[in-house]
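Sample intake sheet
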Amino acid sequence: MIIVLKPDCTAAQVKSFTDSLTEEYKVKVNTWVGTHSTVLGLIGDTSVIDIEYIAAQDVVDSVKRVQEPYKKANRKFHPDNTVITLPGGQKIGDGNLCIMAGPCSVETEEQICYVAERVKAAGAQFLRGGAFKPRTSPYAFQGLHASGLELLRKAREHTGLPIVTEIMSTAHLPLFEDVDIIQVGARNMQNFELLKELGKLRKPILLKRGLANTIEETLMSAEYIMAGGNEQVILCERGIRTYETYTRNTLDISAVPIFKKLSHLPVIVDPSHASGIASLVEPLAMAAVAAGADGLMIEVHNNPAKALSDGAQSLTPDQFDHVAKRVFAAAKVLKEDM
Protein backbone atom coordinates (compact mmCIF):
# COMPACT_ATOMS: atom_id res chain seq x y z
CA MET A 1 0.00 0.00 0.00
CA ILE A 2 1.19 3.51 -0.83
CA ILE A 3 0.03 6.62 0.98
CA VAL A 4 0.81 10.05 -0.45
CA LEU A 5 0.68 12.76 2.19
CA LYS A 6 -0.37 16.35 1.60
CA PRO A 7 2.44 18.79 0.73
CA ASP A 8 1.87 20.97 3.80
CA CYS A 9 2.40 18.16 6.33
CA THR A 10 4.89 18.94 9.06
CA ALA A 11 7.60 16.52 10.15
CA ALA A 12 5.77 16.04 13.44
CA GLN A 13 2.53 15.13 11.65
CA VAL A 14 4.33 12.64 9.41
CA LYS A 15 5.97 10.98 12.40
CA SER A 16 2.73 10.82 14.38
CA PHE A 17 0.83 9.32 11.46
CA THR A 18 3.61 6.83 10.67
CA ASP A 19 3.82 5.73 14.31
CA SER A 20 0.06 5.16 14.41
CA LEU A 21 0.22 2.95 11.30
CA THR A 22 3.03 0.89 12.75
CA GLU A 23 1.38 0.43 16.10
CA GLU A 24 -2.16 -0.27 14.90
CA TYR A 25 -1.50 -2.43 11.83
CA LYS A 26 1.92 -3.94 12.67
CA VAL A 27 3.36 -2.98 9.27
CA LYS A 28 6.74 -1.57 8.29
CA VAL A 29 6.64 1.93 6.85
CA ASN A 30 9.18 3.18 4.32
CA THR A 31 9.20 6.96 4.14
CA TRP A 32 10.29 8.81 1.00
CA VAL A 33 10.46 12.59 1.24
CA GLY A 34 10.28 14.30 -2.14
CA THR A 35 10.35 17.92 -3.22
CA HIS A 36 6.58 18.33 -3.25
CA SER A 37 5.23 15.43 -1.22
CA THR A 38 5.98 12.63 1.20
CA VAL A 39 5.25 9.04 0.21
CA LEU A 40 4.73 6.23 2.73
CA GLY A 41 5.19 2.65 1.57
CA LEU A 42 3.51 0.09 3.82
CA ILE A 43 5.05 -3.38 3.87
CA GLY A 44 3.30 -6.31 5.51
CA ASP A 45 -0.29 -7.51 5.74
CA THR A 46 -2.22 -4.48 4.51
CA SER A 47 -5.38 -6.42 3.67
CA VAL A 48 -6.94 -5.42 7.01
CA ILE A 49 -6.37 -1.71 6.40
CA ASP A 50 -9.47 0.23 5.34
CA ILE A 51 -8.41 2.46 2.44
CA GLU A 52 -11.37 4.80 2.89
CA TYR A 53 -10.51 5.33 6.55
CA ILE A 54 -6.89 6.13 5.72
CA ALA A 55 -7.90 8.44 2.86
CA ALA A 56 -10.12 10.39 5.24
CA GLN A 57 -7.22 11.40 7.49
CA ASP A 58 -6.31 15.09 7.39
CA VAL A 59 -2.69 14.50 6.37
CA VAL A 60 -3.48 12.09 3.51
CA ASP A 61 -3.69 13.14 -0.13
CA SER A 62 -4.21 9.73 -1.76
CA VAL A 63 -3.99 5.97 -1.10
CA LYS A 64 -3.59 2.97 -3.39
CA ARG A 65 -2.75 -0.70 -3.09
CA VAL A 66 0.33 -2.12 -4.81
CA GLN A 67 -0.14 -5.42 -6.59
CA GLU A 68 3.52 -6.21 -7.28
CA PRO A 69 5.09 -8.58 -4.73
CA TYR A 70 8.31 -6.55 -4.57
CA LYS A 71 7.99 -3.45 -2.41
CA LYS A 72 11.37 -1.99 -1.49
CA ALA A 73 12.61 -2.34 -5.08
CA ASN A 74 9.40 -0.83 -6.44
CA ARG A 75 9.53 2.66 -7.95
CA LYS A 76 6.05 3.34 -6.58
CA PHE A 77 7.53 3.23 -3.09
CA HIS A 78 10.60 5.26 -4.09
CA PRO A 79 9.86 7.61 -7.02
CA ASP A 80 13.40 9.02 -7.32
CA ASN A 81 16.27 7.02 -8.78
CA THR A 82 18.61 5.43 -6.27
CA VAL A 83 22.18 6.68 -6.61
CA ILE A 84 24.87 4.48 -5.11
CA THR A 85 27.97 6.32 -3.93
CA LEU A 86 31.17 4.54 -2.99
CA PRO A 87 33.59 5.84 -0.33
CA GLY A 88 35.94 7.02 -3.09
CA GLY A 89 33.23 9.20 -4.62
CA GLN A 90 32.36 6.96 -7.58
CA LYS A 91 28.63 7.00 -8.35
CA ILE A 92 26.26 4.59 -10.07
CA GLY A 93 22.87 5.83 -11.20
CA ASP A 94 23.51 9.58 -11.07
CA GLY A 95 22.84 10.16 -14.77
CA ASN A 96 26.41 9.57 -15.89
CA LEU A 97 27.59 6.38 -17.57
CA CYS A 98 29.80 4.14 -15.44
CA ILE A 99 31.94 1.30 -16.77
CA MET A 100 33.17 -1.77 -14.91
CA ALA A 101 35.93 -3.41 -16.90
CA GLY A 102 38.55 -6.11 -16.47
CA PRO A 103 39.26 -9.77 -17.12
CA CYS A 104 36.79 -12.60 -16.65
CA SER A 105 39.33 -14.31 -14.39
CA VAL A 106 42.22 -12.93 -12.41
CA GLU A 107 45.28 -14.89 -13.52
CA THR A 108 48.49 -13.13 -12.41
CA GLU A 109 49.49 -9.92 -10.67
CA GLU A 110 51.07 -8.61 -13.87
CA GLN A 111 47.90 -9.33 -15.85
CA ILE A 112 45.40 -7.74 -13.49
CA CYS A 113 47.53 -4.66 -12.77
CA TYR A 114 48.21 -4.04 -16.47
CA VAL A 115 44.55 -4.42 -17.42
CA ALA A 116 43.54 -2.18 -14.50
CA GLU A 117 45.93 0.54 -15.72
CA ARG A 118 44.60 0.35 -19.26
CA VAL A 119 40.89 0.35 -18.44
CA LYS A 120 41.35 3.25 -16.02
CA ALA A 121 43.20 5.23 -18.69
CA ALA A 122 40.26 4.61 -21.04
CA GLY A 123 37.76 5.97 -18.51
CA ALA A 124 36.53 2.92 -16.57
CA GLN A 125 35.63 3.80 -12.98
CA PHE A 126 35.60 0.22 -11.62
CA LEU A 127 37.77 -2.87 -12.01
CA ARG A 128 35.93 -6.16 -12.52
CA GLY A 129 37.66 -9.51 -12.20
CA GLY A 130 36.74 -13.02 -11.16
CA ALA A 131 38.49 -14.74 -8.26
CA PHE A 132 35.81 -17.41 -7.83
CA LYS A 133 34.51 -18.70 -11.16
CA PRO A 134 31.34 -20.81 -11.56
CA ARG A 135 32.01 -22.98 -14.63
CA THR A 136 29.79 -25.42 -16.45
CA SER A 137 32.56 -28.02 -16.51
CA PRO A 138 34.10 -29.19 -13.22
CA TYR A 139 37.41 -29.50 -15.10
CA ALA A 140 37.54 -25.89 -16.26
CA PHE A 141 39.57 -23.20 -14.48
CA GLN A 142 37.68 -22.26 -11.31
CA GLY A 143 39.64 -19.13 -10.39
CA LEU A 144 42.43 -18.37 -7.93
CA HIS A 145 39.99 -17.92 -5.02
CA ALA A 146 41.51 -16.09 -2.02
CA SER A 147 44.77 -15.37 -3.81
CA GLY A 148 42.75 -13.90 -6.68
CA LEU A 149 41.06 -11.50 -4.27
CA GLU A 150 44.48 -10.47 -2.98
CA LEU A 151 45.62 -9.72 -6.54
CA LEU A 152 42.51 -7.58 -7.07
CA ARG A 153 43.39 -5.62 -3.94
CA LYS A 154 46.90 -5.05 -5.27
CA ALA A 155 45.45 -3.76 -8.53
CA ARG A 156 43.19 -1.42 -6.53
CA GLU A 157 46.20 -0.11 -4.61
CA HIS A 158 47.99 0.36 -7.91
CA THR A 159 45.20 2.24 -9.70
CA GLY A 160 42.67 3.38 -7.09
CA LEU A 161 39.84 1.63 -8.93
CA PRO A 162 37.17 0.03 -6.69
CA ILE A 163 36.92 -3.71 -7.31
CA VAL A 164 33.85 -5.71 -8.40
CA THR A 165 34.01 -9.49 -8.01
CA GLU A 166 31.65 -12.44 -7.69
CA ILE A 167 30.77 -14.34 -4.55
CA MET A 168 29.51 -17.92 -4.76
CA SER A 169 28.89 -19.02 -1.17
CA THR A 170 28.01 -17.63 2.24
CA ALA A 171 31.12 -19.43 3.49
CA HIS A 172 33.23 -16.96 1.49
CA LEU A 173 31.77 -13.82 3.10
CA PRO A 174 34.76 -13.18 5.41
CA LEU A 175 37.00 -13.04 2.34
CA PHE A 176 34.85 -10.30 0.80
CA GLU A 177 34.96 -7.78 3.64
CA ASP A 178 37.37 -5.60 1.66
CA VAL A 179 35.59 -5.94 -1.70
CA ASP A 180 33.96 -2.70 -2.87
CA ILE A 181 31.05 -4.18 -4.86
CA ILE A 182 30.01 -7.81 -4.42
CA GLN A 183 28.60 -9.46 -7.51
CA VAL A 184 25.93 -12.15 -7.44
CA GLY A 185 26.23 -14.14 -10.65
CA ALA A 186 23.40 -15.35 -12.85
CA ARG A 187 23.60 -18.88 -11.47
CA ASN A 188 23.18 -17.61 -7.91
CA MET A 189 20.41 -15.09 -8.55
CA GLN A 190 17.96 -17.32 -6.67
CA ASN A 191 20.37 -18.55 -4.00
CA PHE A 192 18.09 -17.07 -1.38
CA GLU A 193 20.24 -17.94 1.62
CA LEU A 194 23.13 -16.06 0.03
CA LEU A 195 20.88 -13.11 -0.77
CA LYS A 196 19.66 -12.97 2.84
CA GLU A 197 23.24 -12.80 4.13
CA LEU A 198 24.13 -10.08 1.63
CA GLY A 199 21.13 -8.16 2.93
CA LYS A 200 22.90 -7.87 6.27
CA LEU A 201 25.87 -6.07 4.70
CA ARG A 202 26.12 -2.36 4.08
CA LYS A 203 27.91 -2.32 0.76
CA PRO A 204 26.75 -2.37 -2.89
CA ILE A 205 25.56 -5.66 -4.36
CA LEU A 206 25.53 -6.16 -8.14
CA LEU A 207 22.76 -8.63 -8.92
CA LYS A 208 22.86 -10.35 -12.31
CA ARG A 209 19.66 -11.57 -13.91
CA GLY A 210 19.53 -15.36 -14.19
CA LEU A 211 19.85 -17.14 -17.51
CA ALA A 212 16.16 -18.13 -17.58
CA ASN A 213 14.62 -15.73 -15.07
CA THR A 214 11.89 -13.18 -15.62
CA ILE A 215 12.15 -9.50 -14.84
CA GLU A 216 9.82 -9.90 -11.86
CA GLU A 217 11.89 -12.81 -10.49
CA THR A 218 14.98 -10.60 -10.75
CA LEU A 219 13.29 -7.83 -8.80
CA MET A 220 12.15 -10.34 -6.19
CA SER A 221 15.77 -11.42 -5.73
CA ALA A 222 16.70 -7.77 -5.26
CA GLU A 223 13.88 -7.60 -2.70
CA TYR A 224 15.52 -10.41 -0.71
CA ILE A 225 18.66 -8.30 -0.32
CA MET A 226 16.78 -5.08 0.42
CA ALA A 227 14.45 -6.75 2.92
CA GLY A 228 17.53 -7.48 5.02
CA GLY A 229 18.32 -3.79 5.22
CA ASN A 230 20.84 -3.41 2.39
CA GLU A 231 19.28 -1.10 -0.19
CA GLN A 232 22.45 -0.66 -2.23
CA VAL A 233 21.49 -2.99 -5.08
CA ILE A 234 22.53 -2.69 -8.73
CA LEU A 235 20.60 -4.69 -11.33
CA CYS A 236 22.53 -6.24 -14.21
CA GLU A 237 21.04 -7.48 -17.49
CA ARG A 238 23.52 -10.01 -18.90
CA GLY A 239 21.47 -11.83 -21.50
CA ILE A 240 19.02 -14.70 -21.19
CA ARG A 241 18.87 -18.16 -22.72
CA THR A 242 16.67 -18.47 -25.78
CA TYR A 243 16.51 -20.86 -28.73
CA GLU A 244 19.13 -18.78 -30.61
CA THR A 245 22.53 -20.50 -30.70
CA TYR A 246 24.61 -18.01 -32.67
CA THR A 247 25.29 -15.96 -29.56
CA ARG A 248 26.11 -17.22 -26.08
CA ASN A 249 22.91 -15.65 -24.75
CA THR A 250 20.34 -13.19 -26.08
CA LEU A 251 20.60 -9.65 -24.75
CA ASP A 252 17.14 -8.57 -23.57
CA ILE A 253 17.62 -4.89 -24.28
CA SER A 254 13.96 -4.22 -23.46
CA ALA A 255 14.74 -5.19 -19.86
CA VAL A 256 16.62 -1.91 -19.35
CA PRO A 257 13.66 0.48 -19.77
CA ILE A 258 11.35 -2.01 -18.08
CA PHE A 259 13.60 -2.25 -15.02
CA LYS A 260 13.87 1.55 -14.99
CA LYS A 261 10.08 1.87 -15.12
CA LEU A 262 9.35 -0.69 -12.42
CA SER A 263 12.24 0.01 -10.06
CA HIS A 264 14.34 2.89 -8.78
CA LEU A 265 17.52 0.77 -8.70
CA PRO A 266 20.45 1.44 -11.09
CA VAL A 267 20.64 -0.83 -14.14
CA ILE A 268 23.81 -1.88 -15.93
CA VAL A 269 24.31 -4.16 -18.94
CA ASP A 270 26.95 -6.84 -19.55
CA PRO A 271 27.36 -7.10 -23.36
CA SER A 272 30.27 -9.53 -22.99
CA HIS A 273 28.26 -12.36 -21.45
CA ALA A 274 25.19 -11.46 -23.46
CA SER A 275 26.96 -12.16 -26.76
CA GLY A 276 29.98 -14.32 -26.01
CA ILE A 277 31.57 -12.74 -29.10
CA ALA A 278 34.06 -9.87 -28.82
CA SER A 279 32.97 -8.21 -32.07
CA LEU A 280 29.41 -7.86 -30.77
CA VAL A 281 30.38 -6.11 -27.53
CA GLU A 282 30.52 -2.65 -29.08
CA PRO A 283 27.11 -2.63 -30.83
CA LEU A 284 25.40 -4.18 -27.82
CA ALA A 285 27.09 -1.66 -25.50
CA MET A 286 25.87 1.18 -27.72
CA ALA A 287 22.36 -0.27 -27.68
CA ALA A 288 22.46 -0.47 -23.88
CA VAL A 289 23.44 3.19 -23.61
CA ALA A 290 20.64 4.16 -26.01
CA ALA A 291 18.17 2.14 -23.92
CA GLY A 292 19.07 4.14 -20.81
CA ALA A 293 21.48 1.86 -18.94
CA ASP A 294 23.34 3.48 -16.05
CA GLY A 295 26.49 1.53 -16.81
CA LEU A 296 28.27 -1.29 -18.61
CA MET A 297 30.28 -4.30 -17.50
CA ILE A 298 32.86 -5.24 -20.13
CA GLU A 299 35.47 -8.00 -20.13
CA VAL A 300 38.99 -6.92 -21.07
CA HIS A 301 42.03 -9.20 -21.26
CA ASN A 302 45.62 -8.42 -22.20
CA ASN A 303 45.75 -11.55 -24.40
CA PRO A 304 42.26 -12.97 -25.06
CA ALA A 305 43.63 -15.84 -27.17
CA LYS A 306 45.35 -17.24 -24.08
CA ALA A 307 42.74 -16.30 -21.46
CA LEU A 308 41.94 -19.03 -18.94
CA SER A 309 38.23 -18.28 -19.29
CA ASP A 310 35.92 -16.49 -21.73
CA GLY A 311 38.63 -15.28 -24.09
CA ALA A 312 36.25 -15.28 -27.07
CA GLN A 313 34.15 -12.48 -25.56
CA SER A 314 37.02 -10.42 -24.12
CA LEU A 315 38.28 -7.21 -25.69
CA THR A 316 41.95 -6.31 -25.89
CA PRO A 317 42.92 -3.07 -24.11
CA ASP A 318 43.17 -1.31 -27.48
CA GLN A 319 39.70 -2.50 -28.46
CA PHE A 320 38.36 -1.35 -25.12
CA ASP A 321 39.87 2.11 -25.68
CA HIS A 322 37.82 2.41 -28.88
CA VAL A 323 34.59 1.09 -27.33
CA ALA A 324 34.91 3.34 -24.26
CA LYS A 325 35.30 6.45 -26.43
CA ARG A 326 32.20 5.58 -28.42
CA VAL A 327 29.93 4.74 -25.50
CA PHE A 328 30.97 7.79 -23.49
CA ALA A 329 30.34 9.98 -26.54
CA ALA A 330 26.92 8.41 -27.06
CA ALA A 331 26.03 8.84 -23.39
CA LYS A 332 27.02 12.50 -23.53
CA VAL A 333 24.82 13.17 -26.56
CA LEU A 334 21.84 11.42 -24.97
CA LYS A 335 22.28 13.33 -21.72
CA GLU A 336 22.39 16.66 -23.59
CA ASP A 337 19.18 15.78 -25.43
CA MET A 338 17.27 15.01 -22.23
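Comment: The two ends are 32 Å apart (CA to CA). The first strand starts at residue 2 and ends at 5.
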